[in-house]
Design a protein that fits this description.
Elements: E1 5-11, E2 14-32, E3 35-54, E4 57-62, E5 68-71, H1 73-78
Antiparallel strand pairs: 1-4, 2-3, 4-5
Length: about 80
């Protein structure tokens, strides 16, 4: 990727959360005419929160409006807005 650096931004490490359903398989058995029939279905038993961890990012944005790159802090400290990448 090549372009001119149009923006520099530090994004600290963070955690975001989503909620996911917890389910279990529930089965029942019934008898009819001497035959046994088993029927199963999935039931929701609750929810739990799932963490999504995002590492710190020393980000540069290029003038093509399509690329935001996380780069090493040492390189981020050296580059300036307007530099060619």
């Amino acid at each position: 990727m090549h372009g001119t650096i149009t923006e520099k931004e530090y994004k600290p490490a963070r955690t975001t959360w989503t909620t996911e359903s917890v389910t279990k398989k529930q089965c029942t058995t019934s008898r009819s005419g001497g035959r046994t029939k088993r029927s199963c279905h999935t039931v929701q038993t609750g929810t739990h929160r799932v963490p999504h961890r995002h590492a710190a990012c020393w980000q540069i944005e290029l003038d093509d409006d399509a690329h935001e790159l996380c780069i090493a802090k040492g390189r981020w400290d050296k580059v300036r807005v307007g530099d060619r990448w």
